[in-house]
Amino acid sequence: MKRIYSLSTCDTCRKFLKELNPEKEVELVDIKTQGIAAKDLDLAAKKLGSYEVLFSKKAVKYRTLGLNKKVLTEKEMRSLILEEYTFLRRPLVIIDKTITSGATKEALAALKKS
């Protein structure tokens, strides 16, 4: 599987994708219009160790919904990510067995290496 979940309107995602320069067969998924498939989210959480790694606490809705004042369970984080694209830490890259979340230098290095 070769899929990148990102937000087409996000400058950070665009910069990351430009630097990564993915191959043509990599499917680019705009999470705002298409969302994330539950099976892909579950696969990423299993590989990365938790849904918390995939959950964006920088999202504006995180504070406006008062979620910053709660301790969220893994199940709640999964539901929130599936319901609202803004809670997915992006870009989420799934290329074969390499899975990364977030636009970090480490993620970029791992993807270029694989």
Description of the molecule:
The chain is α+β, with helices and mostly antiparallel strands and 114 residues long. The protein has 6 helices and 4 strands, in the order βαβααααββα. It has helices spanning 11-20, 31-34, 38-48, 60-64, 74-83, 105-113, and strands at 2-6, 27-30, 92-95, 98-101. Strands 2-1-3-4 form a 4-stranded mixed beta sheet, sandwiched between helices. The mean pLDDT is 94.
Please give the number of β-strands. 4
Order of helices and strands: EHEHHHHEEH
What structural category arises from helix and sheet content? alpha+beta
- Largest sheet data: 4 strands, mixed
Proportion of helical residues: 40-55%
What would the principal axes of the Cα set say about the shape? Answer: globular
Radius of gyration: 14 Å
Strand content of the residues, in percent?
5-15%
Low-confidence stretches are: none
Mean pLDDT: 94
**Count of helical stretches:** 6
Strand order within the widest beta sheet: 2-1-3-4
| Quaternary structure annotation | single chain
| Terminal Cα span | 14 Å
